[in-house]
């Protein structure tokens, strides 16, 4: 076994232009979503959608203060994933060796960046939709929300796993 299998070196890998673009898009969307929530806060009823079923229909209502949790979770996840992006030597790899280590690190960093930003955008969308339903401007998330979300998330995961396997 190669020494890289157990002792992963720390490499200085800067963010790519694509990663920086994803981050900027998510930050702008997060800020816009937060501004939107603040702007409609006084118009929101005391009870807002708090949970949706698989068909995208509201199946629990809760306090509008529960809406504050979504941006907090998005920020905490973004901070955690950003931290992990900076430490690819801590990630798990299959068949890591000196010939593929840089590619595998870059792949893992990009994977985390994509998942992080997809999650932030998800929380922004959920916050927006909850406000829209509470204000009577929408009825639900819609029947296609869950399938689309799952295809995007699992599609991203599958893409990066396959990409990693191909470069062993």
TrEMBL record:
Q: Which domain of life does the UniProt lineage start with?
A: Bacteria
Q: Which Pfam families match?
A: DUF1648
Q: Where is the DUF1648 domain?
A: 32-74
InterPro entries associated with the record: DUF1648
Keyword annotations for this protein, in alphabetical order, are:
Membrane, Transmembrane, Transmembrane helix
Transmembrane spans: 21-41, 67-84, 105-128, 140-162
Q: Which GO terms describe its biological process?
A: response to toxic substance
| Protein name, UniProt field | DUF1648 domain-containing protein
* Lineage of the species this protein comes from: Bacteria, Bacillati, Bacillota, Bacilli, Bacillales
